[in-house]
Amino acid sequence: MPSSLPSDRHMGFSSAETVGRILTFLLWKFWKLCGAAVLFLILIYWMYGTVIILILLIVTVIGGLYHYQDSLLYFPEQPESSRVFVQTPSSLGLPFELVTLTAKDKTSIVAYFIKQPPTAMSTAPTLLYFHGNAGNIGHRLHNAQALYHHCGFNVLLVEYRGYGKSHGSPCESGLYQDAQASWDFLLSRHDIDQSKLIIFGRSLGGAVAIHLAASLGHNDHLMALIVENTFCGIPHMAQLMFPGATAIPHIFFKNQFLSISEIRKVRSPALLLSGLADQLIPPTMMSDLYQNCGSRVKLIETFPGGTHNCTWTSFGYYDYINKFVGFTSHTGGGKTDSDEPELN
In the chain, what are the helix, strand and coil shares in percent, each to the nearest 5? Predict the structure, then answer.
């Protein structure tokens, strides 16, 4: 007599078949979904792939340039052997003290402190010297020698981090720290007249000098700021060299040195020395810095034949410095109603 109920074998086969159908259905749905997703991605890439690649290329280039900018600005190894050999002041018969300074971030830098004879050292003005973006302090000794003999200054020649025998690597914030450490060193010296401190900078050093003077504001120790052939800022120089750089926001510049903004905060008497034959930094930038300088006592002197690196050899160069420093000394730090002193 046939059974009215299916056997266990048939029930098992039926259940397996049902599960198989369900799995097949789900796999088919999943495949269609994946296929649609892949098709969508291919369509997006076909429509916008070039744009995506272009964006990735631009980001890569900007990122590379951002990290490569130091190599475009700082040249501590030019000329060759600049990190190996640094001429000393004694080679020019200048009495000096080799100084080691420690910046806020613990970076160790060196400096030459060229000192007037003991009878004059304590009363002479002391000039804090920041050089340009290449070479080392030994390459500035002839200029320092003239400042020593013709102007009667004590001179502190500062070697930036990553230059000469100084440790570390150069960067904007690091150079500012080096400048502050140098200033603090002068304030620790009781064998000089701390009311006669002068901050001097040429080219890149001008930006460092302006930043330091701006950070000091009204300061009884700062007698004068002197800058020579310096720029308004790195973005401004980039715009000059690459017209398309005008559209690049400042945030993309690793080093900015925005002296055009910093100089508005300067309150000490300021002398700007501009070589009109400068082929590297347009003399118009020196004029812009002069116009924006926040000091009530400021003066710009021009030298028709002065080039970027050799304006200091121009006729009358040291006479202008002496007259300006003498003027600020006789007016108690330049406290006068006149905005521009007359140096006759």
Answer: 50, 15, 35
